[in-house]
Amino acid sequence: MADRTPYEPDLPRTMKVRQKALRTGWTTGTCASAAAKAATEALVSQRARDVVEVALPSGRRVTFAVDSCLIRADRAEAVVIKDAGDDPDVTHGARLTATACWRDEPGIELDGGIGVGVVTKPGLGLELGGPAINPVPRKMIEQAVGESVDLKARGVRVVISVPDGETMARKTTNKRLGILGGISILGTTGIVRPFSTASWRASVEQAVAVMAAQGEKTLVLCTGGRTEKGAMRLLPQLPAVCFVEVGDFTGAALRKAVEHGITQVVFVGMAGKLTKLASGVLMTHYTRSKVDTALLAEITLTMGGSGELAGQVAEANTARHAYELWEAAGLLGRAGRELCRRVAVVLEQFAAEAGGDIAAQVVLVDFTGQRMIAMYGRLSR
């Protein structure tokens, strides 16, 4: 379990109001990086470590207890147990296991073992046939291992495993997404925030109320930390209080905006969330809704795409896969704008039904959250 005493996570503004109520946790990516560092240090020193310290993407450093460590002359294995905090996470308690051994060439070779899923379908931004270890966790693991051994001079092979990971994956959408045989190693900030709780919803509503109390009339809703940073760059004229990480609670945020007389809303998101919103789903948590690829196929045809392309989009594995198909066909700009238009219609209609008159601007960003792909709507300020 991580030592939180010296460490206060750099939480988004919408979390500040409830830090004491709900406990944050650690992503599988963070735990995997800690296990990888513990295994590498044991391989180098031939001594087991009780604790290790690793860096989060923000640069902050956190300390983890090492649950167990096995050492042989040519390899070492270490286990860190995941603590998901108060999030209802199926991987809470998972034993993130890293095995480290020497390799002939300098650098790190990273692979997945038992309980880590294998990518079998496109649209996830990962290599087909490779382990489901996302880009940010990969960087965290490489940094953690590089703190223990000079990777320019020596080579290390690290295998991440999760005993019971295949069983855990049955409670996720991994199989539908083409991730087979285990869980994904995830995380963009290293911190698990309890998005799926009433307290998270309450914090979103309070953030909207605080913004309105300062006389601001433009609310910027962002799906997460990456989109929030991108939105701030797109709208530098707006004060920070206008930006709210809405998570899955778009409907709750809009109702609160209507209540406080807010007249303009900007929604900044990636293809998956926008597709759900365009379908009329305002509670977008993955357990309660799914991406409607038929809608994306309809947009493809409306924007001049071929029937063949529309068929491919209809069968797309994820919204990201559809996005990539649009991009490859040169249709991304037009289709993206139409997707944004449809989301704006849904948001404005929802606000009207709640008794408000809100003008919506919708922005589709890429999967880094930093680059605008398409936009619909116009702000008056």
Provide a concise account of the structure shown.
The chain is α/β, with parallel strands linked by helices and 381 residues long.
List keywords for this structure.
alpha/beta, five-stranded mixed β-sheet, 19 strands, 381 residues, CbiD-like, disordered N terminus
Tell me the major beta sheet. 5 strands, mixed
- How many β-strand stretches? 19
Task: Count structural domains.
Answer: 2
Rg from alpha-carbon coordinates: 22 Å
Mean pLDDT, all residues = 88
> Could you name the ranges where pLDDT drops below 50 across 5 or more consecutive residues?
1-20, 284-288
How far is the first residue's CA from the last residue's CA? 48 Å
The total count of helices amounts to 13
Strand content: 15-25%
Oligomeric assembly: single chain
Strand ordering within the main sheet: 5-6-7-11-8
The residue fraction in helices comes out at 25-40%
Shape: globular
SSE class: alpha/beta
